[in-house]
Amino acid sequence: MSASVPEPGSASPPGGGGRIVVTGLPVAPGLAVGTPVFHDETDIDIPVLALSADDVSGEQRRLATAIRMAKKQLADVEQNIEREVGRRDARIFSVQGLLLDDPAFRKAIRERIATRLVNAEVAVRDAVAAWSDRLKGMGNEADRDPVADLRDVGRQLLRILAGRPGRAAASAVEKAGADGSKVILVTRELLPSDTATMDRRRLAAIVTASGGAASHAAILARGLGIPAVTDVDVSSLPACGGPWIIDGGQGRVILNPQPEDLDQAVRQSQHYHDLREELAARASGLVRTKDGVAVEIMLNVENFDSVHPEMMSGLRGVGLFRTEFLFMERRTFPSEQEQYEYYVEALSQVGDAEITFRTIDVGGDKPLSYFSLPTEPNPVLGWRGLRLSLQWPDMFYTQIRALLRASAHGRVRILLPMVTMVEEFRRARTMIAQIQSDMQVHGVPFDEDVPVGAMVEVPAAALAARDLGEEADFLSLGTNDLSQYALAVDRNNARVASLYQPLHPGMIRLIKTAIDGAALANSQLSVCGEMAGDPDSVLLLLGLGGRSLSMSPYHLPLVRRLISAITLEEAREVAVQMLELRSTTEIRAELRGHVLRLVPELSSLLAPI
Prior knowledge:
Layout: E1 2-4, E2 19-23, E3 25-28, E4 31-39, H1 56-85, H2 87-101, H3 103-116, H4 120-136, H5 144-161, H6 168-176, E5 183-187, H7 192-196, E6 203-208, H8 216-224, E7 228-230, E8 244-247, E9 252-255, H9 259-281, E10 287-288, E11 294-301, E12 317-322, H10 324-328, H11 336-348, E13 354-358, H12 385-391, H13 393-406, E14 411-416, H14 422-441, E15 452-456, H15 459-463, H16 465-471, E16 474-477, H17 479-487, H18 505-520, E17 524-527, H19 535-544, E18 548-551, H20 556-564, H21 568-580, H22 584-598
Parallel strand pairs: 1-2, 4-5, 5-6, 6-7, 11-12, 11-18, 12-13, 13-14, 14-15, 15-16, 16-17
Antiparallel strand pairs: 2-9, 3-7, 4-8, 8-9, 10-11
Helix pairs in contact: 1-2, 1-5, 2-5, 3-4, 4-5, 9-20, 11-13, 12-13, 13-14, 16-18, 19-21, 19-22
């Protein structure tokens, strides 16, 4: 028999052997076949100890050690995810790291230890519960993410304090798939750290009771290519041995499938993976639109761990190399020689291609543990990027010398972040010229024609792109920070996350102004923010006049396929339509409709909007 569940999560499937279809909420596209493994995260046994006043300092030290270890674990996970799918998805763990650094959160735990004379485990449990209740009470749908982050951070601290490192959900998947079979993880909730540490060779799909399409775990599942369905009453699902079919695009869980269901699912799943492999195989060489217009594709990287050598074939190079990661992975400032060797090694990875090295961009949401920045009411609006470099010239001089020395070994471009005014760029360029003169006097070899460009990520700079373009050798449009500043939305603040909409009508007009201004200045402009790797946004960017895109290696195949399947005139027509719309929701829906009309085979690869 066949049972269809009309309402998400309301299933109460019978225990018989008939075909059962349970409908949930689609959160990550793709089709998968696998054996279900039910996992319910067991609570960590928390000892409840009565402390004396003399015990408090020792318990505070235990807490401080656990926080340091948790931050190190988060940093490791963040780097792994960034290598796989890019900075956008990895930022989830930056947010959790910031929570661990939050003075109010840490104070809440410490005060519980000191005033209530309880051990660190109890203090962490109670502080997380109190903060979670406070966020839940706000009634904002976006608050599901910060609550999940709190639980995730709390769980990590408790595991460390209890001497239980590791991931229970990941272990369940590894154990169930030890024989090489594909596993479908069925659980009440999956937190970001669980998703990030799964063995993707064994994990076929995820089914959860809660989470939502905007949850961090769902975002990671989409980025990692793991089909996922949520809003399913997992407690009512029979613990049958499978196989099950998971349709992440339609939000369906099929139990006890018939042989013809399995045959069709295996074919469609194989088609899905073959299509991704085929697109990846085509990811080299210059890409042209259907009517022959060349569009430049480059990569955003901070190292080459996730970049296959063949990806560089035919590409001009790396459009954004984030040098701050060299600084963030250390405990002290790297010396000029260390930086020089690091940049030369990077150049050796790209052969004759070029690398655009962005100078250190710390401050705001990217602090250095060994560099004490002043406390600021609005850090992202304060001392960061080029502002910091100009006021801390020793650090800037050291990095510029290292980059110039490296330019003798490959094609180097220098990109200055967070440029607000022409005067800032002129001052930085004067400093660079002084360093070049000193190197010439001392006979230090370097490329005297190294281009120096400016990031356009401040709305005022976008509006004045023509002026900045006449001063700089090239421009790079950073849509992430540009969106943040134009929309007055902290993109790391989950309370206002729903307002962070790069496809806002005002943002589209601002981007058009920047592209038009660069064209009037005859200055090359490349888009290097997250919009450059989103197929829906790429269609719009091409129509607005964008001809150079730099993105995470993960997004390269899909973007290339889109560009090669459309004409420039089609993209222009779409852009004209989008400029006339007033609603972000309408713009997103219309763009997705155009993409699927022009390139229907991408339907199974794109995340739901």
